[in-house]
Hints:
Layout: H1 4-14, E1 19-22, E2 30-33, H2 35-66
Antiparallel strand pairs: 1-2
Amino acid sequence: xxxxxxxxxxxxxxxxxxxxxxxxxxxxxxxxxxxxxxxxxxxxxxxxxxxxxxxxxxxxxxxxxxxx
Length: 68
């Protein structure tokens, strides 16, 4: 569960709403990602892949240098 203060702060910095919150009644409430929130998550996943690829290349270059 995301701390609501944290998500509010992130939303203010990003300039868009990440999560739509619905208060509960008899059925209980829920929260769902906005389209912008989903787009942010997908972009973040792509960023992680790029980081992993970069780290792999840098590490490979390093070990090639010390082993030659």
